[in-house]
Protein: AAA+ ATPase domain-containing protein
Amino acid sequence: MTDWPQLRSDILEAFTPGPPINEVELFAGRRDVIQRLQDIAIERGRNAIIYGERGVGKTSLATIFHKPLNVTDATGGRVRRRVVDIHVNADSGDSFDSLWRKVFRRISRPNEKNPIANEYDGPIEPDHVFLELQRFTANDLPIIIIDEYDRIRDNDCRILMTDTIKALTLSRTNPTIVLVGVSENITTLVYDHPSVSPRNLVQVPMSRMTSQEIKDIITTRLRNLRMKISDDALWRIAFFSAGLPFYAHSLGKYAALSAVSQQRLDINEDLVFAAMKDCMSDVDYTIVLSFTRATEFIYRKKNIFKEVLLACALAEPNDLGQFQAVAVEAPLSAILGSDVRVPSFAFHLNEMCQDARGNVLHKTGERKTYLYRFAEPSMQPYVIMQCLQDGTISQELFERLSVKRQRTLSL
Structure:
């Protein structure tokens, strides 16, 4: 007999849309990337920079990739390799000194009462970092993870970090620095990156998850919970997630909770649609605010900003999540019930790239060949779900417009 209250608790522990995942076996997908980071950590003189869009799972990856690297002798129980992971978050006010003081506060030494950071009256320099990291033993595998590295505004800090990474190539111990940041490429994160050998600072780009990886997030957890999900429901979660693990976790959680509330162990498509409302309550408030600014009526005059934004969310993108204005024509025509061409909504696209409309879209390229993308990846799924909820688009029309994508996202 199923213990329904216990199953509900298990669901809340299994699906984690908020905090980073902290168990390797629950980090479905990204297996190749995990292996790559593990190889970097084990090899001497190698460091990594993980970068990509916001919300693609960079922090979760940095949190768990090293967990299987501890090695204990099977016979004597002697520790052959001990991971010492130190995870700090950078902020906009950090200097090289303040950033490494955060790291040093988290390093404990046997028989030393005071934190290492207290030993430095003056600014911490790259050579201080180099010498402190030499104090680890041959069996230690120190991994220093500096998250939100994109928030650092101090160019001197970035220069000194590059110097530190280059200096560590001569280390007799095996420390690994892992930088994590939101960026489209390494050039905006690392100063003077050409001077750092690709062998010493390995680029680890994080793209959105594939539909199969989203599927793995759901099925891995439901299997552990002894629950099932229909193929259609699984595809719906993959479609709405748009490659972002947050939405997969949130929709999976609420669909499973809805099933439990009905005392059933199977999840169908109706439960996924019902989960949207609760999922939207989990979305960061900045996304909700930006959506409101982008679509609000100014001077109470009706406009089609919401419909244009929805059509953008339903437009067929390229592999980088970008779309041309012409790709918006078909979904917008279907939503408005009349034939429209680019000149009818070019103004709206341009306005949504401006401050007045919250900069929800980002535009690149030349006139007549502009490429657009959502400035925040989380906005695209939110727009679709919000417009389904408020009736801007009917479920029937949504089904018709999503048929083309179903072939490419088929699970």
Observations:
- Confidence is low (pLDDT under 50) at residues 404-411.
- The chain has three domains: 30-206, 210-282, 285-409.
